[in-house]
Amino acid sequence: MELKRLEVPTTSITEVKKSPMDVFQQAREAGTGVYVFNREKIAGIMLTQQQYEELLDQLQQFREHSFQSTQETEEMVSLEGLSQQLIQQIRQTIVVGTSIAAKQLDEKMVSLGFITKKTGFGGVTELIKELQTTGKMVYQFRKKNQEKNLYVDLIGELDVQNQLGDRMVVKKILARQLS
């Protein structure tokens, strides 16, 4: 069996104990963290102070961008003619950026008055297939809003950290109306 070789610098916990400054120098030269192994398992990753602070800055920027995207989505939804109460319910029920089981997500959308074409036996499997092929799950509001059909697109991706493959991470919630 051939071991997978990492494309990043590595060291052992023994080397860290001998000379931690050498490991920091290695991280500085490589421009990335150094994976520290203990008995063939990753014990941690060593970064320079500058690398760590850059990661914190990127995380803060990501959070700000995510917050702005959520606000833009809410504005778009309200422009589409949805009642504020329904917007609030969607926001409280579906949390953007978190992992949720497809079946649970479907049950929550149905409880809010939405339906999907993917119902009946194997419906959740069809929802997962739709997510894999289109990057979204589409729901339609049961009641017509001023003679227009209201749709909500749950844009996201499969949660790759879940072994069962039935969970998704909702990235964005968009609403649209069709005549």
UniProtKB/TrEMBL annotation:
This is Type II toxin-antitoxin system Phd/YefM family antitoxin.
